[in-house]
Amino acid sequence: MTTTPSPGRLPIQLVGGWEVGLLGLMALLYFAGAMINPGFFGTSEAFHALLRDSARFGVIAVGMTFVIANKDLDLSVGSTLGLIGVVFSYVYDPNHYDLGIVTAVIVCVLAGAAVGLVNGVLVTILKVPAFIATLTMLLIGRGVVLGLTGGRSILYPIKAREDAWFFHLGETNAWGFNNQIAIVLVIVAIGAIVLAKTRWGYETFATGGNEQAAVYAGIPTRWVRIRGFLLSSLCATIAGLMTVAQDKGITSQAGLLTELVVIAAVIIGGASILGGRGRIVGSYLGALLTVLINKVLREGVPITRIVEIDGQKIEVKAVSTLPAGAVPAFIGTLLVLAVLIEPYVIRRKLPQRFWAWMRGKPAPAPADIGGVAIEGVQTRGTLAADKALTARGFGKFLARRDSLAIMLCATLWLVGLALRPDYWWHLPNTFAILLNYTELALLTVGLTYVIACGDIDLSVGAVLALAGSTAAYFLKVVGADPATAIAMALIVGMSAGLFNALVTVGFGLPAFIATLGMFYIARGVAAWIVAGQQLTGWTENFNLVGRKVGDILDYLGLPGPPGILGAITDVVSVQTIWLAIVAIIAGIVLAYTPFGQKVYATGGNRRATEYAGVDTNRVRTKALLLSAFCATMAGIINVAFFRSFNPVAGQFRELDAIASVIIGGGSIYGGYGTIIGSLAGAAVITLVRALLQLNIITSSGESFVLPQHWVNVFVGLVLISAVLIDIWVRQANILARLRRRLVQQRLQVQRELPHA
Amino acid sequence: MKRELTSIVAAAAFAAFAAGSAMAQSGGVDKAVGGYTWEEAATEADGTKDFHSNDGVLTFAIVTHTAGNGFFDPVYVGATVAANLIGAKILLLGSESPTDDPARELEILNQIIQDPTLDGIIMTTPQVGAYDDIVRTARENGIPVATTNSYDPNILDRNGISHTGQDASAAAIAGEALVKCLEERGIESGSIILPNDTAMGNIEVNNRVTSAYNAIVKALNASGKLDKFKVDAGPESVGVSADMNDPVNSIISLIESRGDVVGAFAGNNVFTPALAKAVAQTGNTGKMCAYGFDLGPAQQEALRSGDLTGALGQQPFLQGFWPVMQLWLEIDRGISAANLDTRAQLVTGETVGSVGKRFEN
């Protein structure tokens, strides 16, 4: 048995078989690239380009590996990259503070450390789940980037010449290779040694592997986790500085979606999202592989196209490439496959067994086929739930987890009323806001079930686009009738949900990874189907799905009902009614039926639920399917409402939807969440946006609108406040503790008084 | 009711217009169109000041599909300048996303169109078909609409809505210039690429790329050199796929992988500065014929340094300034919707000096 590690050998290594596999895959891809385009992949230039373009991802992946090995997650790295770029530019740019390069770098390092510290403190001391804490930082970081730049680029190529030594770090050096490659190699080397061979690394693996055991072993796990977040943010800071060094300026979109690329790279590199496992070299290879896929799939073969210009057919030489969307679709598939290989191929010793079978020898027994999903029981908030049983009247309402969102929603609406009493409450305005609310609200309905089950669905926005793209394709290109188009969209959208369920429930992968894979696949395929173009111009029959009731009556030539009913039909949209129906059914099912209770039970404590005889797999599958169903409906409505399909449909909506559910009292650990709460959470986000775009008229007659660039900062602040209040005020009952302490102090004073 | 008001306004304005032209004929230029103040007009026809909100002050809103990448800044400036000239209030709104987000723009429009103090809406229309309901509601509420920047030929009531913007065919100017640049530099073969984020689906940008592509192919074909060049704008002629979230590196990748790129065209404010940076970072400054769109500070700098051979300004200031004026003329003087083609201004390294800071918008 050579495969079991000898007791004397340390379990953690710098590299292992996984990295060899990655190298093999890369060699294959590289070879494929060389076959397609020998002029590029046949030269060292391609290798150089690969190393250079993956440098920043590689640097961030180093920090991310520490975080993931700690069993945490850092979604904020992309926005930290952008934020550092903007901070640097603000300090350095002659049109802003115009300070020296050293000052600028120091300020950036301090800012990066501050982000990491805030993440770490939120997660460890304030006990906010890492996913939520760093999602907040992502939103706030993006908001600050947009707010500070106002969306503009900040460029300083002339001043950059004065500090050539710094900006040279982003350029090709005298030896003919880009300095960023040197930077990433140094950081990977340091990171690999620190994680595999030093106390910091052992502490990280111990904390991520079993935090409780690590605490008993005397490891300061809080500090270890804070350190992970600090390293991650500092790596993102270095990547941000590399970006400004290369571009001598910053744009507002720098770092968009980088977090997902890096997380994918780290997971492909062999780290486990469940903590306790990960190697820096693997993560770096994962980053290289992701970039290599991008390069190879964007290669093409020479062809001759015949284009028609002014009625004349002309032959033009060109290069035929895969359509837009192929790259993300492939990366998503690879992500899921990479995670599946470990438990299903390596741990089950499939290669060895195949080899034995070939030789006619008995197959070795698989060491462990337990799967990857070693999930802890994480029921939280029982104290608050107990309190709800005894509370009365308004206290009963306050004890509800969704009370905060409902109150906030009402407050925001009243703010609107105070700002514009002349029309805010009017029927048309109310339904206009409801119309803006519908898409997000539909997504949150399905997501509430998924999150209550203890899973997550990152793919809702992408599935929305996929369903919309399918419907548009069938309407426009195939020329199908509306019913067929809707049916096809439902089939494709539900297939995406089935894939999510299969990979999550069937193969036992964490929902985060499965749906991150689907995020890439669905968005890629959506763009692929329509060849990246807008599709429009089909029968108005279909578009009725997204119209106002009055418009439909007009279209059908029916007279509108008289009086108040007529006024309502003129303003209410079909999708709003549809949302109401879906939400009411979903709300009743979740709150009052056995299935709803099974959902909460599954999310609250899956093992206990299974002992109670519930098929939790079926419950989770249904929840994921429902989420895909809601996203699909939103996609169909989106296409009908806009009378066209645009490949950017649903972009970034998944973040809004997750934030809505959490603001509405859902717990990222599962077991909680109500439809009313999630709808209120979605309403909070919609109302924040509505207020930011409201024409506010001052008493002196001036008009102004609030700065909309900061919208994500507001959403982030609402999100983190909601979570902090939930954890500290409701669950830890910090107010009652405070009161008790005050009462005790008073008693003590009273006791001491007579003696005096 | 609202419609009645509108027709009163129109009638009043027409009356004022007729009276003005009569005066003009009799030599009273001060009472010609534009010579009236609101108050003077109101003495002749009571309805003049009864535009939609009837609060004595004009309020316009301009809504764009991305306020997050700087392109629309000069548009907003133009709108503000125009509003100040006529004493109107202007609300500057737009999707906060750094990349195109027509869905957010629609949300903003849906809401503000209910605002009773609003007298006019200026909007961009990058997603075909999506804006019809807005136009209908605006018409029902008596709010005139003007479109700017991107052009939707099939929008409801197209003939009743003025459009200010550049015809995408203007991109042909850059295509022709690119071929001329190749001739001047004596380049006889190689690849010409037109990078664009084809997953972005901005109809206007796609049209520009197609237009530039067709011009390049036509010009090369006319000079009989087409078979020496590879001209690539993807299978749909809307661009070779590049990533708008990481534009510089994806254009560098294209240049490196094709190996023989001698010319490039980028169709918007995201890819043009990125193209210039890619030219500089691949050491092609002064060698490659690189053309792009818009005249922001980044493009001007790139023209000076030679990273960019030429850039087409679509005069965005005018795209904000003119629709405000147009709406004012419609409301005040009953002048019906007139379109303005802002055309293109081709600026090169030699002429960039004359585009001083004052005109960079």
Write a structural description:
- The complex is a heterodimer of chains A (756) and B (361).
- Chain A has 756 residues and is mainly alpha-helical.
- Chain A is 68% helix and 4% strand.
- Chain A has a two-stranded antiparallel ribbon with strand order 1-2.
- The longest helix of chain A is centred in the first third of the chain and has 27 residues.
- Chain A starts with 16 loop residues before the first helix and ends with a helix.
- The N terminus of chain A is likely disordered.
- By secondary structure, chain B is α/β, with parallel strands linked by helices.
- Chain B is 42% helix and 16% strand.
- Chain B is built from eleven helices and 14 strands.
- In chain B, the strands form three sheets. A six-stranded parallel beta sheet of chain B has the order 2-1-3-4-5-13, sandwiched between helices. Chain B has a six-stranded mixed beta sheet with strand order 8-6-10-11-12-14, with helices on both faces.
- In chain B, helix 1 packs across helix 11 and helix 6 packs parallel to helix 7.
- The two termini of chain B are 41 Å apart.
- At the A-B interface, helix 3, strand 3, strand 4, helix 21 and helix 31 of A face strand 2, helix 4, helix 7, strand 8 and strand 9 of B.
- The number of helices of chain A is 35
**What is the gyration radius of chain B calculated from CA atoms?**
23 Å
Number of helices of chain B: 11
Distance between the termini of chain A: 79 Å
Instruction: Identify the most extensive interface between protein chains.
Output: A-B, 92 and 88 residues
Average pLDDT across residues of chain A? 89
**SSE order of chain B, one letter for each helix or strand:** HHEHEHEHEEHEEHEEHEHEHEHEE
Largest sheet of chain B: 6 strands, parallel
**What shape does the CA trace of chain A take?**
globular
How far apart the termini of chain B lie comes to 41 Å
The number of strands of chain B is: 14
Helix content of chain B: 40-55%
Shape descriptor of chain B reads elongated
Overall radius of gyration of chain A: 28 Å
Q: Structural class per helix/strand content of chain A?
A: mainly alpha
**Residue fraction in strands of chain A:** under 5%
The SS-based structural class of chain B is: alpha/beta
| Uncertain residue segments of chain A | 1-9, 369-379
Question: How much helical structure, as a percent, in the residues of chain A?
Answer: 55-70%
Q: Spans of chain B of 5+ residues with little confidence (pLDDT < 50)?
A: 1-6, 8-29
